[in-house]
Amino acid sequence: MSTQRNRPVPVVVVAGFLGAGKTTLLNHVLRTASGRRIGVVVNDFGAVSIDALLVAGAVDGAVTLGNGCICCTVDADSLETVLAQLVAPSAGLDAVVIEASGLAEPTTLVRMVTAAAGHRIAYGGLVYLVDAEHIEQTRALHPEMDRHIAIADLVLVNKSDRVATEVLDDVTASLRHLNPTAALHVTDHAAVDAAMLFDPIAPVADTVPRQLELADLLDDTTHDHRHLHDGYQSVALTVDAPLDPRRLAAFLERPPAGTYRVKGVTHFDVAGHRGAYSVHAVGGHVTVGDMPADHPRSTDLIVIGSGLDVDAVRRELATVIRGDEAVDRQSMLAVTRYRTPRRRAS
Question: Could you tell me the pTM of the whole model?
Fold first, then answer.
């Protein structure tokens, strides 16, 4: 059982027009779940075509996959109900991915997920795929695509192997113009490191011989996973000194360009708020939670993205560390307004 089951479940929205690679991305995420239990929400199993080897059985519109993941069909009207079921502790999922095509506009889905965010749901971001080979034709046919790209948290420039380098440079420049702050990553066959989207599951040592699982056979990172990490960056801040709540809140709300998510544990040492807090932010959507009373009073933050100016991120992170100046209790409102209700022990 994952140690993360008591945390909010990140819900990621995946969007993009026909042929961009959404199905390829979903299959890749499922094949490389690496111990994570993923829920995938689609509106049509036939359209998504989850790899046949992954499917173990289907009951009442839900497919149980051989690696412990779940895939369900849903329409826009029942999405809220299905999400509530998927993030329930009894489902035991580590993340949920919604495939937007046919369900609703990406903006509508993002609004629904952020409105539902609380102690069980965390907004995991809008991942938008574009076909590098046909993007200009698609933009001409679907002008709304520009609006979708503009609100994305992670833009994947897919099918990069099908275009010349100079064409790819023009495409990425055009996308940067539409969305100058999102994490932007060039992909081949929608191969995205799952650690970019979800927290890893702590590995469990094999103390006794075990049967080879389906997930082991399907994990296409087993032979050479180095390419999955190309282009991603992470910047960490680990300090014992307390942070300035207002400056941290500003950093989480408006993270540096190229940031996909910020996560970690912080402390502020402000009267009435001496404990540690967990923080998670995607695209300016911030979630704050209370850590156990005995958690060390230190800060361990990590910024994850693609196209980050690492030195600039380090400088910005350094500004959130509090100096000798006094901090009043009122300043904590900048952080605590994002706090999710404390979950009662079951």
Answer: 0.85
